[in-house]
């Protein structure tokens, strides 16, 4: 039977509330199925998934990207309209559409202007099932116009008078942010007396002499274009009464002087708004900002009230010293009259602002996608509200419904479309448009008529684990059209589940309200509609809940003592348990005094801060439980008030009812010291076997003063008792009288019994002896018994004492034995002991592995096979097989020499193994031996094999010597590992031009017996790159590379006395190479002559070795270098090289490490090249100073950023491209970005145009500039290299605002 659907209005628990959330997600999945496999063959009308905002303000310096993304099956095609007409993107070379998408990119960076692409755009996504449309996207270019030219006269007024400094910023898009600063870029301080209005003007309720200044500057910050414009400075002069009297004295009679009172006080009047009543209209959801600024003396204070109502508490905020009232998320209920009251000591004045809240359309019910099967009914509801009431209009596939193709299954009733008995042709995308004078809403909703058999989307065989007595939710996400019915079954042949125990939710989920152990099992979900059936199995496991069976207890302890909290947890053994301790719901202090040991938290040396709530939290993957206890820390007080301490020790211990295996102990408790005794701890001492060692016997509650104690035989007992309260444990009581129990036979036998042979003819039996306490009587001995496992022999026994080992001699080699060890004393025997199996001793194997075969896999790997030896010949536990192999003779050398043998062991009974790491082109021999616990058996006959040739290693070295005008000579050493017979060398080389591009590659073969080769007919003064490698019959080896440069002309290679008196090109030359070696280091110095732009390097290696030279790059300003980490007493070869555009040269030397010796160093200050370099640097600095001085005298630019950073004003902090904050200002005329720092090319050469000392890198593009009208143009530094320069007048295209307010 099908289960009953859960009532929709049933009260749900928190867990079921989560289930309903999941249910809603699954219902939406019917519109857009979540399973990607289902999407592959499910036809679906288009759905707009991403689009640009309705009001899209673009940056004119960047390409325009208008987003339009949609999904559907088949994938939709896209088209655009612009200003209501078709936009043919193919005819505009600057417009491209992203493949598989409707997103447009307009490339105005390469050509074109942003203003020419302003307008209203709309995207349409269409497939065979319908057409969806985007909002009207209004594209407008951001603007940051300059202030219009105006002549500002200085303002002079008397102290105490009001003042309004107008800002009147240019109209930008979007509107700018206004702030006032002085000429030093300091934010002007604001207060109840001086403040900035919402319109940007600066209001003074009354002026004071300190307000006089000549640099009141209004700034407009345009965030979208990352620019700042500034108004011309305004000069304000404030005259005092004394200054006025001086002026009058010079022109008027003495009777016309002002009085002694410096300011004339007056009641408040409003500077803004004007009049007694004003009106304000705001849209629902916006921020309502009301402003009142008053003048007066003393400075008035502003108050706000709402007539016939109260201000909303959580949405009301006061700004600008209460001169601005803001209400966020304004609603129609916020309409009404608001009063601002300005008051000072001379009177009060009020102004009423009548607020009307209008509303752009907002959704009451937005239309939702419909998935119907043929013949079904459905409705689309589009219900919106607004003020005024919005008008609802419908479109079908982007065409007004009135002129769309007729559909007999469709009926329109205002804001509702009713569908009756739909057919597949009824599929379409409907658009609902709700609009009024303040905006519009557009929603796409498709009707998709599908006939689909049921499909279950939940993964098969999903495992659910639930804690017992909790709800279990088994998913069965499904899809089908018509909507399938769902049934659940338990077990392979079970009947449908009944509704009295289970609940079936609308999304197919089966809920077991209270899962029990018997709920475990396999459940089957079956989905059916008239087109078919689908089913899926899931599995449910019920786990035991986690429980804290011993909770931490409340504790009161003294400062400095130790406290322990216990938390014993029981959980389902199949789940992983984690126990965490918290203090006051936070982590434990990171203090070594807190330790966690198994189930206990121990706090040592308690301090006052340790007091609080300690919580033990036990977590598994399915549940968690916790328990808490409070720790109270008390301090000893010097007053005679009650002393809280550990109890006094008990006394008067007495033993009664003395039996063989028990005795009764009674005692008298000591004083509990104002903390009740919670328990008594009883310990015992075995006077016979362990004097002075006390052992735990038992614990009893604090209300009990007697205990029945269980005893062991033949033990001389003595007892003591300790009392425990909340503060700790008392001292031990006095020891009770001794009680010796009667002897008895042992209760147990020795443990850890083993039988192992140490020699081929013995069996060593060992065991762990009993302690004196376990002996139960005098005369403890052991009966050791043994016999062969596979024989019919009787047990052989021997009785021993005071030992834990017995050796049986004369045994056969490696034979299984059964052994047992039984304890006995003077009273009798222990119970029959357990029998364990052992083996007599092993001997070396007798037989070598046979039929050893070797298969060579490649030049470095071989595989070895052998036949196993008979098990009887192993004479022990088989450990494995061991291969010995060694290199006997190299095929490239006729001198036979042996090297050290290598060993590989293969565990167990394997009969094959791989030999890795062999040397190519070599003779090897090997043998195989079997290994047991005793050692190796005899070796098999040696088996020889030969590895084939391999590719050689790289040549050991490669040097280029004797460069001339058209030739270079190469010298090299053969590979250190030829791995075969060298057949030839291959040399490839190619020229490198000045831009580091590689020329054609030339290939040259060189005989294998050569170690030197000269290349001729090369280009003069040209850099070449060489690739050099050796070859054997197996192929080519690794290559070594090098670069070299031919000389500029023949003069570069003439002897010094040739060509004297004529101008020659200077080639690099290194001389006077000296080394000063210590034990593990060396200092190397040299002298260099030649061009300055060269790169020095030091190469070194062990003298006489074939290893490659190690190379270190040297700073080109140094003529010395130190090497460290060398081996003492070793001869090294060293080579210093210099490489530049006109050639390269090197010098070599040999040194030996040893005792440190003084190095000969060259005085760098006397070198000509160094003096020349310093002169060049000084000349460059002088030129920079002259340039800076000239530009500074022009007065056209000044460093804005440094002044702003120094004062750290939050309104003018640097803006970065990422977050819209300020960066450095740049000249608005050239708009050039700062050049990046130049980088040295990979070949270490430095091009002239990339010099680090280039004046461009010290550029002036970050300084602002004043235009003729005095306005400041500052553009933040960014990634754009150019943008159109703006004129002095503000000219803007009219914005298509109506397109944002009404869709049609």
From TrEMBL:
Bias kind Basic and acidic residues: ranges: 1199-1219, 1241-1250
One Gene Ontology cellular component annotation held by this UniProt entry: plasma membrane
Superkingdom of the source species: Eukaryota
Protein topology in the membrane: Single-pass type I membrane protein
GO molecular-function term, one example from the UniProt record: ankyrin binding
Keyword list, A-Z: Cell adhesion, Cell membrane, Disulfide bond, Glycoprotein, Immunoglobulin domain, Membrane, Repeat, Signal, Transmembrane, Transmembrane helix
Protein's cellular compartments: Cell membrane
Domain Fibronectin type-III: 649-744, 746-843, 848-950, 954-1050, 1064-1156
Region annotated Disordered, chain positions: 1199-1304
Biased composition (Polar residues): 1288-1304
UniProt xrefs under Pfam families: Bravo_FIGEY (PF13882), fn3 (PF00041), I-set (PF07679), Ig_3 (PF13927)
The family this protein is said to belong to: Belongs to the immunoglobulin superfamily. L1/neurofascin/NgCAM family.
Protein name per its UniProtKB record: Neuronal cell adhesion molecule
Native organism taxonomy: Eukaryota, Metazoa, Chordata, Craniata, Vertebrata
């Amino acid at each position: 039977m099908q289960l009953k659907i859960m009532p929709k209005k049933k009260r749900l628990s928190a867990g079921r509330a989560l289930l309903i959330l999941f249910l809603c997600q699954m219902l939406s999945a019917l519109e857009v199925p979540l399973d990607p496999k289902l999407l592959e063959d499910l036809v679906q009308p288009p759905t707009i998934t991403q689009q640009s905002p309705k009001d899209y303000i673009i940056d004119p310096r960047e390409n325009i990207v208008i987003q339009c993304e949609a999904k559907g099956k088949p994938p939709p095609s896209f088209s655009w309209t612009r200003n209501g007409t078709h936009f043919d993107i193919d005819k505009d070379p600057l417009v491209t559409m992203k493949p598989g998408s409707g997103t447009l990119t307009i490339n105005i960076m390469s050509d074109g202007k942003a203003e020419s692409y302003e307008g209203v755009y709309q995207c349409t996504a269409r497939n065979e099932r319908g057409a969806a449309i985007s909002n009207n996207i209004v594209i407008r270019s951001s603007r940051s116009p300059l202030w219009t030219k105006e002549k500002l006269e200085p303002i002079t007024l008397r102290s105490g008078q009001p003042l309004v400094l107008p800002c009147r910023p240019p109209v930008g898009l979007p509107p700018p942010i206004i702030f006032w600063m002085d000429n030093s870029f300091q934010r002007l301080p604001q207060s109840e007396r001086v403040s900035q209005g919402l319109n940007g003007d600066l209001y003074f309720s009354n002026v004071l002499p300190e307000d006089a200044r000549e640099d009141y500057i209004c700034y407009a910050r345009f965030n979208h274009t990352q620019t700042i414009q500034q108004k011309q400075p305004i000069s304000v002069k404030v005259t005092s009464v004394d200054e006025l009297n001086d002026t009058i004295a010079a022109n008027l009679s003495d009777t016309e002087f002002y009085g002694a009172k410096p300011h004339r006080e007056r009641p408040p009047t409003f500077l803004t708004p004007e009049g007694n009543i004003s009106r304000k209209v705001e849209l629902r959801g916006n921020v309502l900002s009301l402003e009142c600024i008053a003048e007066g003396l003393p400075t008035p204070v502003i108050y706000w009230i709402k007539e016939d109502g109260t201000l909303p508490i959580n949405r009301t905020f006061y700004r600008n010293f209460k001169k601005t009232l803001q209400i966020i998320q304004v609603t129609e209920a916020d309409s009404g009259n608001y009063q601002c009251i300005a008051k000072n000591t001379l009177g009060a004045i009020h102004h009423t602002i009548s607020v009307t809240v209008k509303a752009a359309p907002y959704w009451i019910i937005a239309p939702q996608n419909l998935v119907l099967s043929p013949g079904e009914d459905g409705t689309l509801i589009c219900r919106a509200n607004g003020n005024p009431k919005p008008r609802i209009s419908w479109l079908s596939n982007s065409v007004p419904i009135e002129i769309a193709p007729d559909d007999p299954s469709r009926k329109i009733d205002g804001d509702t479309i009713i569908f009756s008995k739909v057919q597949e042709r009824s599929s379409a995308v409907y658009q609902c448009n709700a609009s009024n004078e303040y905006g519009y809403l557009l929603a796409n909703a498709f009707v998709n008529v599908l006939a689909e058999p049921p499909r279950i989307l939940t993964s098969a065989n999903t495992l659910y684990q639930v804690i017992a007595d909790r709800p279990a939710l088994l998913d069965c996400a499904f899809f089908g059209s018509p909507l399938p019915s769902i049934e659940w079954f338990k077990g392979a042949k079970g009947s449908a589940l009944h509704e009295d125990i289970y609940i079936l939710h609308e999304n197919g989920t089966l809920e077991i309200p209270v899962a029990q152990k018997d709920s475990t099992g396999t459940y089957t979900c079956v989905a059916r509609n008239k087109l078919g059936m689908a089913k899926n199995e899931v599995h449910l496991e019920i786990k035991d809940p986690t429980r804290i069976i011993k909770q931490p207890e409340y504790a009161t302890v003294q400062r400095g003592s130790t406290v322990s909290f216990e938390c014993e947890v029981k959980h389902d053994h199949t789940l992983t348990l984690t126990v965490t301790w918290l203090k006051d719901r936070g982590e434990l202090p990171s203090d070594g005094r807190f330790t966690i040991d198994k189930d206990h938290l121990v706090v040592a040396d308690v301090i006052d801060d340790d007091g609080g709530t300690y919580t033990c939290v036990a977590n598994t993957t399915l549940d968690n439980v916790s328990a808490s206890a409070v720790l109270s820390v008390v301090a000893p007080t010097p007053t005679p008030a009650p002393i809280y301490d550990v109890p006094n020790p008990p006394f008067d211990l007495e033993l009664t009812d003395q039996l063989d295996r028990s005795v009764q102990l009674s005692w008298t408790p000591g004083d509990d010291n104002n903390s009740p005794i919670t328990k008594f701890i009883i310990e015992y001492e075995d006077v016979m076997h362990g004097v002075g060692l006390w052992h735990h016997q038992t614990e009893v509650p604090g209300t009990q003063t007697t205990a029945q104690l269980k005893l062991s035989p033949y033990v001389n007992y003595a007892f003591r008792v300790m009392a425990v309260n909340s503060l700790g444990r008392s001292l031990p009581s006095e020891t009770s009288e001794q009680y010796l129990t009667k002897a008895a036979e042992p209760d147990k036998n020795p443990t850890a019994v083993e039988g192992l042979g140490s020699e081929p003819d013995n069996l060593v039996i060992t065991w762990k002896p009993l302690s004196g306490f376990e002996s139960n009587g005098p005369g403890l001995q052991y009966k050791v018994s043994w016999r062969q496992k596979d024989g019919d022999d009787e047990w052989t026994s021997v009785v021993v004492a005071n030992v834990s080992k017995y050796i049986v001699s004369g045994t056969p080699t490696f034979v299984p034995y059964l052994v047992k060890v039984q304890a006995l004393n003077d009273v009798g025997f222990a119970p029959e002991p357990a029998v364990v199996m052992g083996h007599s001793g092993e001997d070396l194997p007798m037989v070598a592995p046979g039929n050893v075969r070797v298969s060579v896999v490649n030049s470095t790997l071989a595989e070895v096979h052998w036949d196993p030896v008979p098990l009887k010949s192993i004479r022990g536990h088989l450990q494995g097989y061991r291969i010995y192999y060694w290199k006997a003779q190299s095929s490239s050398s006729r001198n036979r020499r042996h090297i050290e043998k290598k060993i590989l062991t293969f565990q167990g009974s394997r009969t094959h193994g791989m030999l890795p790491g062999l040397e190519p082109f070599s003779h090897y021999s090997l043998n195989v031996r079997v290994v047991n616990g005793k050692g190796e058996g005899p070796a098999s006959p040696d088996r020889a094999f030969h590895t084939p040739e391999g590719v050689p290693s790289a040549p050991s070295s490669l040097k280029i010597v004797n460069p001339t005008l058209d030739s270079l000579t190469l010298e090299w050493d053969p590979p250190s590992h030829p791995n075969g017979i060298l057949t030839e060398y291959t040399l490839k080389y190619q020229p490198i031009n000045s831009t580091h591009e590689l020329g054609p590659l030339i290939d040259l073969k060189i005989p294998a017996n050569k170690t030197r080769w000269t290349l001729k007919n090369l280009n003069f003064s040209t850099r070449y790159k060489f690739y050099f490698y050796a070859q054997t019959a197996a192929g080519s080896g690794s290559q070594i590379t090098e670069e070299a440069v031919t000389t500029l002309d023949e003069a570069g290679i003439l002897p010094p006395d040739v060509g004297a008196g004529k101008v020659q090109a200077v080639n690099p030359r290194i001389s006077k190479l000296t080394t000063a070696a210590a034990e593990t280091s060396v200092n190397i110095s040299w002298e260099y002559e030649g061009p300055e732009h060269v790169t020095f390097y030091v190469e070194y290696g062990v003298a006489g070795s074939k290893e490659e030279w190690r190379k270190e790059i040297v700073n080109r300003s140094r003529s010395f270098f130190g090497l460290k980490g060398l081996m003492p007493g070793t001869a090294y070869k060293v080579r210093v090289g210099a490489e530049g555009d006109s050639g390269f040269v090197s010098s070599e030397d040999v040194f030996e490490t040893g005792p440190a010796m003084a190095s000969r160093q060259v005085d760098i200050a006397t070198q000509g090249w160094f003096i020349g370099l310093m002169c060049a640097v000084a000349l460059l600095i002088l030129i920079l100073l002259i340039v800076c001085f000239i530009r500074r005298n022009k007065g056209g630019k000044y460093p804005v950023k440094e002044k702003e950073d120094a004062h750290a004003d939050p309104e003018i902090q640097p803006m970065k491209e990422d977050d819209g904050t300020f960066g450095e200002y740049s000249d608005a005329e050239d708009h050039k970005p700062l050049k990046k720092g130049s980088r040295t090319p990979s070949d270490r050469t430095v091009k002239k145009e990339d010099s680090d000392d280039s004046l461009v890198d010290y550029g002036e593009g970050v300084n602002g500039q004043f235009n003729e009208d005095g306005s400041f143009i500052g553009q933040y530094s960014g990634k754009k290299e150019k943008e159109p320069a703006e004129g002095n007048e503000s000219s803007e295209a009219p914005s298509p605002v109506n397109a944002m307010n009404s869709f049609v």
